[in-house]
Amino acid sequence: MTELETLLKRADDNLPSSLDKLFALLRIPSISTDPAYRKNCAEAADWLVGELKTLGFAATAYTTKGHPMVVGTSENAPEGAPHVLFYGHYDVQPVDPLDLWESDPFAPEIKDGGNGRKIITGRGTSDDKGQLMTFLQACRAYREENAELPVKITVMFEGEEESGSPSLPAFIEEHGDLIKADFALVCDTGMWDRDTPAIAATLRGLVGDEVVITAADRDLHSGFFGGAAANPIHILADILAGLHDETGRVTLPGFYDGVEETPEEVKKGWEQLGETDQRFLGEIGLSVPSGEKGRSVLELTWTRPTAEVNGITGGYTGEGFKTVIAARASAKVSFRLVGTQDPAKIRDSFRSYVRSKIPEDCKVEFHPHGGSPAIHLDYNAPFLKKAQKALSDEWPNPAVVIGMGGSIPIVGDFQKKLGMDSLLVGFGLNDDRIHSPNEKYELTSFHKGIRSWIRILDALAK
Amino acid sequence: MTELETLLKRADDNLPSSLDKLFALLRIPSISTDPAYRKNCAEAADWLVGELKTLGFAATAYTTKGHPMVVGTSENAPEGAPHVLFYGHYDVQPVDPLDLWESDPFAPEIKDGGNGRKIITGRGTSDDKGQLMTFLQACRAYREENAELPVKITVMFEGEEESGSPSLPAFIEEHGDLIKADFALVCDTGMWDRDTPAIAATLRGLVGDEVVITAADRDLHSGFFGGAAANPIHILADILAGLHDETGRVTLPGFYDGVEETPEEVKKGWEQLGETDQRFLGEIGLSVPSGEKGRSVLELTWTRPTAEVNGITGGYTGEGFKTVIAARASAKVSFRLVGTQDPAKIRDSFRSYVRSKIPEDCKVEFHPHGGSPAIHLDYNAPFLKKAQKALSDEWPNPAVVIGMGGSIPIVGDFQKKLGMDSLLVGFGLNDDRIHSPNEKYELTSFHKGIRSWIRILDALAK
Q: What region holds the Peptidase M20 dimerisation domain (chains A, B) (predicted)?
């Protein structure tokens, strides 16, 4: 047996005790949004500190204005080995409505998941306690085999991820030195499917703006004034309709500055995933891709920027009818960004466009929301390639490098504040029901997740 | 003195007693929308029946599901004289907020209105008790001079005008024979200004439709789906933006069928009114006419059809931001109609246009609202010309034939159900504060209103 094989066997042998540990953590109802569970959050943090210590880490639960931040640091690693920061979170979502749970959310069980699969049930199994424990139990396999950890490891377990991470930016600001590493491993995402592991290499950024258009100084009777008085809903509709051309491209000047085409080899990898427009859209009751023509749904949602109206309101919106010409109308518009699109420039371009469409006797106001650039790893970065190979060795199908349509704030903070890239690897599945009743994690996700980290740590050191 | 001069003098001499009668009616708080005033509405109806009897009319307060409908019929008129139906309403608007009234709304007074004018204060003075009493006291002048009424007169006083006339259609249906005349005189409108009487000869019709567009079968996260999933707000904005071309014309096929240009002489009459875009729009905080280019605000609001969005809603409209792609978006759209535009055809054309813009995997639903054609008198109709001359004889400035941008349902019902045209003549002024605290009617409106009807009745008989 190679050293790696020994470690993997250790993980296999440890599975029962790994589950015991996971269950102990799952039994703590560490709901971060509900002040009633404050003590439980502290208890989960302390439990993790204890675990880290048994792994030989120096570990502390740092007090924040909210729930504690657990940070642990491993003993020194071999000369020249990289330093990685592992991130996970120990807090969980609330469990209402409780009556929809088939068993107690805080009394985890192993159940038959159908088709011969075993599942671990309970709140936090997939999001994110099960996931973070895959990493700790990978470290334990090294420890128990008396093997030195192959890379220097800092871990950071947050207790407020489910409540918007209010204490996180200040913590990074204050304790940046403590957690700064060569790159981060973030374990809070999913696999492509049951057999195909995934690494998220791109995350779209976001810029939001609320537009409020005011025309007359009061709501008007459309009989008396209709045909002569400006209608702000018409102005707004015209503006929003003009945001896209007939090919689905966004019309704002300079919008596509910094947007690059995805390398052909990456797109080929996606083609092998067998995703179709029909399946992707069929799940939500649609069938025709919207947006830019001639691109697949994966390309559209992972690598292309968008302009979307998230909300619109104006005039009478109640039951029945009121023949009013509204004094004002407003819309919330957001842009998903990719590549090196500059949030500030996009916002400016949007506002200039809107202003150019406002009649001289009408007014417009803007209320900004968010403004974060896209995150994009170099597709050829060695640590990405190494992790991809390690994951491919473990799972039935090769690991795929994917994009994510949404943003993950922590990844942006690591990038912006610590100049640190993140490798997003996780073992959740789409049907894990995170944030919903009957959350579960596949036993396979847990077991092979531990094995995956053993392989990744091994690969990263080489 | 001619017979007409004698009648006018009688009206002058009667002014104090005419005011006594008006005040008696004004003191009855006949608020139709509030069940607490049900008895007062009946009392006002009975009071009017009494008045009509003293004028020699056969009069009855007909019971309806709501408040009574007063109908009175004069003795026979001279052979060959026309038969007119006079319409007014005895119900009034509520008086809240009461603390904004400078005196008791149901204790009418004559006050100094500034600039040497006298005003009659109280709820219903202008809308519509003061107005309907001008007609009754014109009839009284004839009666007291022992002059035969020159035309056959039926009067109809409604008690539910301020609550949407729920009983009116059924009453016309059932008692059509009772009220059918050659044409109607409707006294519930205003003068152009203090010195210029007005006859409304056109009223725009109305068609409303609510459009509900459904895309995905649930609200979507714009990160995961943005760029690939149809956004119903985009579809709706595109539809609404396409309703008008760059000259402000409505783009629906066939929309302008039945729309005719206003005769030059009528437009010339309007030019003399001195209305400017700036004054008209300045009052509501605007300055640039919207809608069809190259037409005055009076032309736009009185004689041109419109398409207006009265309300729009979709997605997240609360405080802050939510990056959602909505499952549905909806708008309430109404069309003001003129000439012989056909409401059903306009609705069909609109719906066809909307359907043509709905992607094949999205759905659209419509909810109809209203659907009444425009009312338009023949500008050369003899009764209009006669009334115009009579009014011009009474007031400092000649009477102007105007349009009205809105609809008056009763006029449509008379037209549709009884094939009866209506002449809209009233003596209210724009600053009468109808529906608001401190409603008033100019003493001049009341006095010269009575004299105006004497002249009109005289003229109609010739």
A: 211-361
Residues 259-278 in A contacting B (C-alpha not used; CB under 8 Å) = 277
- A237/B contact by beta carbon, under 8 A: yes
Within the 39-68 window of chain B, which residues sit less than 8 Å (CB to CB) from chain A? none
pLDDT at residue A1, rounded to an integer: 84
Query: How many angstroms separate the Cα of B14 from the Cα of each of B8, B21, B254?
Result: 10, 11, 55
Q: Where in chain B is the domain with CATH 3.30.70.360?
A: 205-259+305-372
- Whole-angstrom Cα distance, residue B450 to residue B128? 14
Tokens of B145: 């001079």
A376 φ, ψ (degrees, to nearest 5): -150, 120
Q: What is the DSSP letter of A397?
A: S
DSSP secondary-structure letter at B244?
Answer: B
Record: contact A405-B225, CB cut-off 8 A: yes
CATH class of B205-259+305-372: alpha beta
All CATH 3.40.630.10 domain ranges in chain B, comma separated:
3-203+374-460
Residue in A392, A376, A359 with CA at minimum distance from that of residue A303: A376
Q: Are B72 and B63 in contact (CB under 8 A)?
A: no
Closest residue on chain B to A370 (Cα): B321
Regarding the domain with residue range B3-203+374-460, which homologous superfamily does it belong to in the CATH classification?
Zn peptidases (3.40.630.10)
Contact B225, A301 (CB under 8 A): yes
Using CA atoms, how far residue B121 sits from A68, A134, B113, B193, B407, in Å, is 71, 83, 10, 19, 27
| Nearest partner of B88 among B71, B64, B67, judged by Cα | B71
For residues A13-50, one letter each, b for 16 or more C-beta atoms within 10 angstroms of the residue's C-beta and e for the rest, the string is ebeeebbebbbebbbbbbbbeeeebeebbbbbbebbbe
CA distance readout (Å), B437 to B37, B97, B99: 18, 7, 9
Chain A: nearest CA to B268, how far in angstroms?
A: 19
Place of tokens 């629906």: B252
**H or E element that contains B313:** strand B306-315
- The total number of residues shown for chain B amounts to 462
CATH number of the structural domain A3-202+375-460: 3.40.630.10
CB B278, CB B306: distance < 8 Å? no
Angle at B73 between CA B416 and CA B48, to 5 degrees: 100
| Most confident listed range (A120-134, B143-157, B269-283) | A120-134
Q: What confidence tens digit (pLDDT) does each residue in A366-378 have?
A: 999 888 899 988 8
Give A434 to chain B, closest Cα distance, Å: 15
CA A152 to chain centre: 25
Q: How confident is the model at residue B311 (pLDDT cuts 50, 70, 90)?
A: very high
Nearest to B330 by CA among B243, B232, B244: B232
Domain with CATH 3.40.630.10 in chain A: 3-202+375-460
Under 8 Å between Cβ of B216 and B419: no
Q: What is the mean pLDDT of chain B?
A: 94
Instruction: Give the whole-number percent of chain B exceeding pLDDT 70.
Output: 100
Q: What one-letter code names the amino acid at B243? A: L
